[in-house]
Design goal:
Number of strands: 16
CATH superfamily of the largest domain: Phosphatidylinositol (PI) phosphodiesterase
Strand content: 15-25%
CATH topology of the largest domain: TIM Barrel
Number of helices: 11
Largest sheet: 6 strands, mixed
Structural class: alpha/beta
């Protein structure tokens, strides 16, 4: 059998796999007239569910443990994690399947073993090379799942090109308490949704709407198969959001590109105003400020290590914040820490984080 024919047969077989549980019954009364002119926008979830794109990638190398920790430190709901599959069938976290641009390696991730992939330095690139995060390893998916389980956050699983066993991702996630229930899977490829739901019927799946101007009626119809809708903010005008809500589903646009207003902050505020239930952001500190959700902070003194650290949610560090250390102004670095040998330490607070002192 030719390879194309085999792929078609496999996809048909996967599509025939029944979900292990019956779908929820939608009790919304559809309003097709509002799919043409929404009028007053629908209200979205309150509070909005915020996902941080590749972790806090402007504070640490993207898709690494420090970047994910900083997103969690701001009290965000989910971290977006790019999942790749290695040659030996395991999973690692890296956006590009060609590793040369962002690591110290070369070649394709799907030709590498798990050990080879997790030995790559994710900070060996023009953005981070030679700084305080160099080196930072490419994490295995298990490490990120453990982090999410420990700190009670969800994961937005972005299943990349190399993933041929989507069911394996869901099965692995189920080994970490609470993760699947708080998370969203982005299948992209036909057949992956069925793989995921066959082994984890409680999983939540997202449809990525790739085209601006998709008819709201089409989005409503897709609502029978999906739970969330995501992708660029212009793809979700108020009429599309109404149709998705009528299907008892939720909307999480990407706002980090500033497609509508020119800024991430502006697009997040706009998305909330037209009824979006969540948003994917690059900067958790921007989301915390725009949504009026500044994180409570404290200052942890570590005399033996000679440092003081500004920490937020789950006692995780907050970098790039101005601290007063016995009258000297310092900026918190990796882990939210600054050198300290005694004396008072204070943080005045800002729109994303509340004041604290020690």
């Amino acid at each position: 059998m030719r390879r194309l024919e085999l792929v078609v047969v496999l996809n048909i077989a996967l599509l025939a796999v029944p979900a292990a549980a019956a779908p929820d019954v939608c009790e919304e009364m559809p309003e097709p007239g509002r799919w043409e002119a929404a009028g007053t926008p629908d209200p979205g979830l309150d509070p909005m569910r915020i996902t941080v794109h590749r972790g806090a990638a402007n504070l640490a190398p993207e898709d690494t443990i420090p970047a994910f920790e900083y997103a969690i430190a701001y009290g965000m709901d989910m971290i977006e994690v790019d999942v790749q599959q290695t040659a030996d069938g395991r999973y690692v976290v890296l956006h590009d399947y060609e590793v040369g641009d962002k690591t110290d390696g070369s070649g394709y991730i799907f030709t590498m073993t798990y050990q080879q992939a997790t030995s790559l330095n994710a900070a060996d690139n023009d953005r981070w090379r030679g700084g305080e995060y160099d080196p930072t390893p490419v994490p295995g998916l298990e490490e990120v799942l453990a982090l999410a389980s420990e700190h009670e956050v969800g994961i937005n699983f972005d299943l990349k090109e190399s993933v041929w066993n989507a069911a394996g991702v869901a099965l692995l996630a189920r080994e970490f308490p609470g993760v699947v229930e708080r998370s969203i899977f982005q299948p992209y490829v036909p057949g992956r949704t069925e793989q995921i739901l066959a082994v984890a019927p409680e999983a939540t799946v997202m449809f990525n709407s790739q085209y601006e101007g998709t008819p709201p009626a089409a989005l409503y119809a897709l609502g029978a198969e999906y739970d969330w809708f995501g992708s660029s903010l212009p793809n979700f005008p108020p009429e599309a959001i109404v149709a998705i809500h009528d299907a008892c589903d939720l909307v999480q646009p990407n706002v980090y590109q500033g497609d509508v207003t020119g800024t991430e902050a502006g697009d997040l505020a706009y998305a909330r105003s037209i009824g979006a239930d969540g948003a994917m952001v690059n900067n958790p500190q921007v989301a915390a400020e725009v949504l009026g959700r500044p994180v409570e902070t404290s200052i942890r003194l570590e005399p033996d290590a000679g440092r003081a650290c500004l920490v937020g949610h789950h006692d995780l560090g907050l970098p790039a914040k101005p601290l007063d250390v016995d009258g000297i102004n310092l900026t918190s670095a990796r882990g939210g820490c600054v050198p300290w040998s005694g004396g008072p330490v204070s943080f005045a607070g800002d729109g994303s984080a509340l004041a604290s002192s020690a």
